[in-house]
Amino acid sequence: MKDRKRILITGAAGFLGSHLCDRFVKEDFYVIAMDNLITGRLKNIEHLFPLENFEFYHHDVTKFIHIPGKLDYILHFASPASPIDYLKIPIQTLKVGSLGIHNCLGLAKAKNATLMIASTSEVYGDPQIHPQTEDYWGHVNPIGPRGVYDEAKRFQEAMVMAYHNFHGLETRIVRIFNTYGPRMRLNDGRVLPAFIGQALRGEDLTIFGDGMQTRSFCYVDDLVEGIFRLLHTNYYLPVNIGNPDEITIKDFAEEIIKLTGTSQKIVYRPLPENDPKQRQPDITKARELLGWEPKVSRAEGLKKTLAYFKSLSPDELKEIDHYNFDKYIIK
Ligand code: UDP
User: Alpha helices of the chain — where are they, by DSSP H?
Assistant: First the structure.
């Protein structure tokens, strides 16, 4: 047997996790993929099952993790990741970011592995500085609808820093900004699958608020490249990875209408509470440290993403939740 690097990826059947599995398998790592399949899907990784350098554990990372043999790296990417998920499964969101990271850190310490966490632009909350640099402490409402995610991710960063400082563990923190691409869950409520799903089903596109809020969308291949490079440095402080090309949600809806050729119109719905007004990563650090910057334009990335959504069956296209935020909030 070859002496391959062995990597554990949690959240492996999810959108980002599955793309990371693809990349590390291709780089000839031995990939141990873990997922409890609450929001992940086996379909995203089933093409990897026949490979000799891939195995899947159906396991919940908030429970004790046992991995036989050596382990060189752990990527803790398990988490619900959309505003509607935070409302539907708030306790799991908190647990995977707290109990889950604690188990991963314990495992990393026992195996002397390097551990990376998927942190997020949500640690900046509804930001008061623009664009967001890594030294900004953020503007987060701990008890708002996004609090379960934001605080779990902030706790994860604190926990990872504690293991780094106290135990000398090799750690990495990537702060991920809005990312898109094939394998996003159509029903996760995030803006891109929402708009493309609506266009393909012949429904109107729902803009929350006036659509003047901004986001900056990064194509998944660019993100994976940034993560791969960061893992191979020895830099333990947070690094933003995202695409600084910022756009209003209204312009984004218009781009999707043009791209899909739908004749549907835009309808306006109330803005969910604590929805950040603007978001754009400052990627100076990633540029300097990793020589990294995004390469895929939105036009190119959206084309590939649309092709993926078009390949779904009519049944899969129907699987939606109708983004009813109020349904999950007991006033
Ligand atoms: N959004 C929207 N219509 C939708 C879904 C989302 O206008 O059907 C908006 C949402 O209010 C937010 C932006 O699009 O301002 C991005 O939302 P998403 O859920 O993708 O991620 P966020 O960046 O807010 O976590």
Answer: 15-26, 83-88, 90-111, 147-167, 191-201, 220-231, 249-260, 284-290, 298-310, 314-318
CATH class in words for 6-184+219-242+281-296+322-328: alpha beta
Q: How far is the first Cα of the chain from the last one, in angstroms, to the nearest whole number? A: 58
Please, are residues 14 and 77 in contact by the beta-carbon 8 Å criterion?
A: yes
Q: Which residues are tagged catalytic?
A: 149
Q: Are strands 238-241 and 266-269 parallel, antiparallel or unpaired?
A: unpaired
**Minimum CA distance residue for ligand 1 atom 5:** 191
Pocket test for ligand 1, best of 15, 140, 190 (most atoms within 8 A of CB): 190
Pocket test for ligand 1, best of 208, 214, 323, 324 (most atoms within 8 A of CB): 208
Cα→Cα distances 282→60, 240, 293, 331, Å: 34, 7, 11, 37
Q: What is the pLDDT of residues 301-320, one digit of tens each?
A: 999 999 999 999 888 887 66
Query: How many angstroms separate the alpha carbon of residue 324 from the centre of ligand 1?
Result: 13
CA angle 274, 135, 145 (to 5 degrees): 15
What is the CA(33)–ligand 1 centre distance, in A? Answer: 29
pLDDT digits (tens, 9 = 90+) for 253-304: 999 999 999 999 999 999 999 999 999 999 999 999 999 999 999 999 999 9
pTM for the full predicted model: 0.95
What is the secondary structure of 252-277 as a DSSP string?
Answer: HHHHHHHHHT----EEEEPPPTT--S
